[in-house]
Design goal:
single chain; 187 residues; mainly beta; SH3 type barrels; OB fold (Dihydrolipoamide Acetyltransferase, E2P); six-stranded antiparallel β-sheet; five-stranded antiparallel β-sheet
Length: 187
């Protein structure tokens, strides 16, 4: 599917100059002289090289068509992940690198989606958020509830993140898997 250069968004997979590129960052720039363009930082999926490219609005680029299949995460085996197809119950082993930095949020039985291009897996999408229990954090201090103040906390999976001062040890919170940030208390 062809898209305009200014319609590129982070997370898109582009079929560009003979390779598959994952868009990491985009910045729309409109200089005082000349036409507007989209500055795109992308990473080649197969070998991991990074590249910055400018696309003008007149440029078109091919957005790769990906197949998305639901799988269930079973367990880790070294650096690999063992997943089960929800429809056929067939188990597959894939590299943990396909999940990127979000691999730390994988939980037993979690539903994930494998993105494949021409039958080969190229990425794993986790749910937008996960519920985690706080293992360690500073105690609540009375009167320290000013807006925008946060304190460090360590989650059950070892992830460190910043939480509001009213959150205590043992509480369950919802964490954004993409940004690794506190969202809200779990109900």
């Amino acid at each position: 599917m062809k898209i305009s250069g200014v319609d590129i968004r982070p997370g898109y997979i582009l079929d560009f100059e003979g390779g598959l590129w994952r868009v990491l960052k985009t910045q729309h720039t409109q200089p005082g002289k000349g036409g507007a363009y989209m500055q795109v930082e992308m990473k080649e999926i197969r070998n991991g090289t990074k590249r910055n490219e400018r696309f003008r609005s007149a440029d078109t680029v091919e957005k790769a068509r990906l197949d998305q299949t639901p799988y269930q995460y079973l367990y880790s085996e070294g650096d690999n992940l063992v997943l089960m197809d929800n429809n056929t119950y067939e188990q597959i082993t894939v590299s943990g690198e396909l999940a990127g930095d979000a691999v730390i949020f994988l939980q037993d039985g979690m539903e994930v989606e494998i993105e494949s291009y021409e039958g080969a897996p190229i990425g794993i999408s986790l749910p937008e958020s996960v519920v985690l229990t706080i293992k360690e954090t500073e105690p609540i201090v009375k009167g320290q509830t000013a807006a925008n103040s946060f304190k460090p906390a360590i989650m059950e999976n070892g992830v460190r993140l910043m939480v509001p001062p009213f959150i205590a040890e043992g509480e369950k919170i919802i964490v954004n898997t993409a940004s690794c940030e506190y969202m809200e208390r779990a109900k």
